[in-house]
Inverse folding.
């Protein structure tokens, strides 16, 4: 049967993200970045495209990040990170982690070509996608990470998104990169462990972290972690690792609970009928079984 890893380890106490950022209350992205910098440490260079992270870091000349922070264009996250890595290599600097940090719009959609090219060449960068399932910074438009049935500004309640969420984990696995993992801000030890593991690996590493957006998901700002936890417990967002495109390991499975417990807390799903909720449950169960087959 399927085995699960025991989550161990402590969250480092040292902070590399200061107060004064401009994120909304309850922002999952800022929690994800705070934990990422704790895991990776001071010798990290952030490469960040247009999006929430580029805005909420602070207004020039101020920055809430206590590590070098390079702004780049929406479509160039991975290629800019590769350039930074090349510059460090020319100087013989091998003890710095180049962290490409993009949202799902910059990763699943606009920046996919650059990420795919970097992964195909197995460039030595760590790419983290903070997955909030829409283009949140520009008005909550749908992205290819938006789940089926969800409201966004471009998929209104009477015409919700009618296509499934793109499986970026499978896309990255198809590149046969050394390491890919899904994570959640609700399970910080699991997330930090995966980042530490990724840091020690040479080549392209991809971590996709579930990052609730209260304003885009229409949830109270004080339940972001609860919502993220329910996504994992309902198996809507399973936590697992893929090594070299073929070795799958589920790292946590505390569920299952019914998907309706996750959906009912979010205004973006309030229009769903019982039949549509049942369809989502069916889709989740089917996807989970497919994951189990890969693990076996």
């Amino acid at each position: 049967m399927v085995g699960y890893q025991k989550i161990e380890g402590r969250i480092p106490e040292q902070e590399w993200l200061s107060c004064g950022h401009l994120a909304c209350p309850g922002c999952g992205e800022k929690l994800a970045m705070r934990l990422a910098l704790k895991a990776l440490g001071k010798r990290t260079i952030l490469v960040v495209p247009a999006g929430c992270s580029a805005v909420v870091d602070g207004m020039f000349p101020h920055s809430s990040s206590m590590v070098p922070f390079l702004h780049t264009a929406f479509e160039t996250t991975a290629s800019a990170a590769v350039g930074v890595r090349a510059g460090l290599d020319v100087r013989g600097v091998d003890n710095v982690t180049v962290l490409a940090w993009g949202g799902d719009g910059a990763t699943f959609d606009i920046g996919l070509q650059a990420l795919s090219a970097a992964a195909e060449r197995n460039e030595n960068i760590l790419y983290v996608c903070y997955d909030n399932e829409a283009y949140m910074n520009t008005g909550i438009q749908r992205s290819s990470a938006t789940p089926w049935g969800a409201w966004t500004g471009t998929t209104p309640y009477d015409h919700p998104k009618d296509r499934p969420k793109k499986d970026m984990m499978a896309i990255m696995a198809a590149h046969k990169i050394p390491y890919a993992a899904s994570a959640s801000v609700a399970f910080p030890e699991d997330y930090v462990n995966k980042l530490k593991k990724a840091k020690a690996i040479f080549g392209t590493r991809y971590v996709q972290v579930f990052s609730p957006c209260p304003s885009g998901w229409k949830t109270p700002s004080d339940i972001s972690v609860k919502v993220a936890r329910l996504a994992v417990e309902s198996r809507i967002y399973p936590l697992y690792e893929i090594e070299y495109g073929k070795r799958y390991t589920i790292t946590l499975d505390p569920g299952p609970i019914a998907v309706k417990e996750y959906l009912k807390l979010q205004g973006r799903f309030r229009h769903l009928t019982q039949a549509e909720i049942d369809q989502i449950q069916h889709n989740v169960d089917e996807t989970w079984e497919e994951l189990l087959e890969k693990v076996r």
In short: The domain at 28-295 is CATH 3.40.50.970 (Rossmann fold). The chain has one domain: 28-295. DSSP finds eleven helices and eight strands in the chain. The longest helix spans residues 274-295.
